[in-house]
Amino acid sequence: MPTLNQLVHSFSRKKKYHKSNVPLLNSCPQKKAVCVRVRIMKPKKPNSAQRKVSRVRLSSGVYLTAYIPGQGHSLQKFSQVLIQGGRANDLPGVRYSCMRGKFDLGVENFTRMKARSKYGLHSLKGESI
Under 8 Å CB-to-CB from 37, ≥6 apart: which residues? Predict the structure, then answer.
């Protein structure tokens, strides 16, 4: 049985609010954006690589940094991309990524067998391996 003090405090509980991981998308699943600058970032401490990122301006006018997934791309200034949520784990401050196969970020120019839908590649039913 709860004590009187416990009953008093149980009614004053605050509701937990969900904080979005991708606040700049304004509750949209994707947003259209224009590349302002395409550059290379280096990842955090244990990793060593050259990650391709793009500084983009959303259709809402907000600027953000988005990761370019896959191998190879042909993005340059004023290219149009579709932005979705999804962070690059070893790049600080990069919480968004570009979608392959939409607008100017075409499909990956690399023969890929697994996770094809993430990189804009279609089914390989007709092709022999």
Answer: 54, 55, 77
Asked whether residue 86 is domain-assigned, the answer is yes
Q: Residue 66's domain spans which residues? A: 23-119
Task: Answer yes or no: is 13 within a domain.
Answer: no
pLDDT tens for the 129 residues of the chain, in order: 888 888 887 766 678 888 999 999 999 999 999 999 999 999 999 999 999 999 999 999 999 999 999 888 999 999 999 999 999 999 999 999 999 989 998 888 778 888 888 888 877 776 655
